[in-house]
Amino acid sequence: MHPRIRPRVGVDYAVTFTSDHLSGGGTLTNLTIAGAEIRSAVDCPIDAHLCLRIQSSGARPPIVVTLAVVRWKRDDRFGVEFVRFEGQSKQQLEDMLNPHDSSALE
Length: 106
Description:
By secondary structure, the protein is mostly beta strands. The chain has one domain: Thrombin, subunit H (Beta Barrel). Helix content is 8%, strand content 49%. The protein is built from one helix and six strands, in the order ββββββα. The protein has one helix spanning 89-97, and strands at residues 9-18, 23-31, 35-39, 49-55, 63-74, 77-85. A six-stranded antiparallel β-barrel has the order 1-2-3-6-5-4. Strand 5 (63-74) and strand 6 (77-85) form a beta hairpin. The N and C termini lie far apart (38 Å). InterPro entries: PilZ_domain.
């Protein structure tokens, strides 16, 4: 394991994912701007390419990651690296992870 550059934020968000060969859902349990950990009954192989739809709390629109790569798996959990986002999803995620930034305040 490599040391983490970015701190993880513990969350409990619903997530759905699809690829050419599988689809399913689960719970996103921690999050950084670079990736996340997902708990799911679906067996996602390492190096699988997924499209994620993350439903955060409140009435925010879902965060859509058009390309995430499975980097590790253990039991019912796996970690993904975010590669490509849809539209403003990356900015939305950055705003959620940096609540002290005045642009994230409503």
